[in-house]
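sorry for the late reply, my laptop died twice this morning and i had to redo everyting from scratch. anyway the thing you sent over, i finally got around to it. pasting the sequence first so we're on the same page, its 515 residues, then the predicted structure underneath. double check i copied it right bc i was rushing
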Amino acid sequence: MRGIVKRFPGVVANDHVDLKICRGEVLAILGENGAGKTTLMNVLYGLYLPDEGEIHIKGRKVLHRSPRDAIENGVGMVHQHFTLVDDLTVAENIVLGAEKFKVFYDLEKLAKEIDEFMKTIGLYVDPLKKAYELSAGEKQKVEILKALYRRVEVLILDEPTSVLSPIEVRELFKTIRNLKSRGISVVFISHKLDEVMEIADRIVVMRAGKVVGELAGHEATKQLLATLMIGSRAVNIEEKFGKHVRPAGKLLEVVDLWVKGDRGEDSLKAVNLVVRKGEIVGVAGVAGSGQRELAEAIYGLRPAWRGRILLEGKDITRSPTAERIKMGVSLIPEDRLRYGVAAELPVYENIYLEKVHLEGRKSLLDRIGLRVLDKKGMVDYAKKVVEKFSVKTPSVFTNAGKLSGGNIQRLIVGRELERKPLLVIAGEPTAGLDIAATNFVRKMIVEMSEAGAGVLLISSDLQEVLELSDKVVILCNGEVMGVFRPGELSMEEVGLMMSCAKRMSKEEVERAWGT
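ok and here's the structure:
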């Protein structure tokens, strides 16, 4: 790629960028949210036409007017936001758009073919599962398999580990090394320094739309990469967040909770859980262990067929979501684009969405169900949130779907935390965020707990869970394997629990919740 320029209204996303990708290497592109990483790869993949510059593949100048052109030239891309068709099976999604796809075919035969394909790649998801039944981590795997099925020579992975557990990250890295040994080039877009340093042969750092550094993977250090990424602000890249408030009385109590999954199976089985005021309870486990269903059940998006959910002693098991919002329950969903924002609505409306539930009825029109909204007040409030949470957007009138993934996450976090909730359910709150934004969000979560809110932190980043939480609960196959304070168990013991190989006794779990 030579001299690539891509402009949007008021923004130069790529400013005369030169980039080379060598055969059989892992090239990491590192940078803050909004640095231009994804835009540059979207140009290579044919989603954007460059305003200036050229693309050459194997010495031949090409013009990618669409992803189909890119795929024909051996370039595939796995996006940060999932593009699967919910009502199709895993097998159907993988072949969708490929030459072999037909309107009528033998699904059982196709599933067997895809099953064999997945075994050769080293990534596996049940080929007969529907996409809507998958966890975020499973969806990520299917997106990777979908690209590899097209026999690409260059595979672009945009924040591929943002929703994967540590075990799944190791599996992904094993796959990447396998692809590299076959001569496939992998472009690894990320903000996670440890992962980049582990997997990359070469690292390119972008800032404000430009390449500001390039170095070999073995030459990299965290401090050097952080300084290149965020300049003089790179003062403390591993900020620790200590709390100075002891948890108080019970805020949330989950008792013997059973919840069905999308296919009618038991996704949560006899789950007991306690979150106290001022306490952060972390939920860890491999993707698909029931984390999403737990969050949805507490927020009112998924019914419980057995058990109770209590908020400050009040039974909210059957309460609608709107009522839970009024009571102070807030959710940061793990799938930010699908559940976190209305992509076609402007930023200011997305930020104000839940405050509508908190306002009293002010007029006769309100009382008959017609809400009169103060647009100026909405815009002013949104501007305050955008500034406080550093959401990078041309204006608050820009459609939320046009923001980068990291800035959509900032918008959601800002919206949910700014209304000072009583209970925060934080699902993957720092997924896809750069170093500075990750530290900012973590600090905000800790400050919320210090102000007396309870936080249920659900994260695939085990280190994040261990660093922020007062207590940690391990889920595996929908069951509680253990409850402990960070530092009480070794990483080996935690790993065994996450893989269902070890389980605390009922008495040990009850003692842990009681302390």
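The CA atoms of residues 278 and 451 lie 7 Å apart.
thats about all i looked at so far, will dig more tmrw
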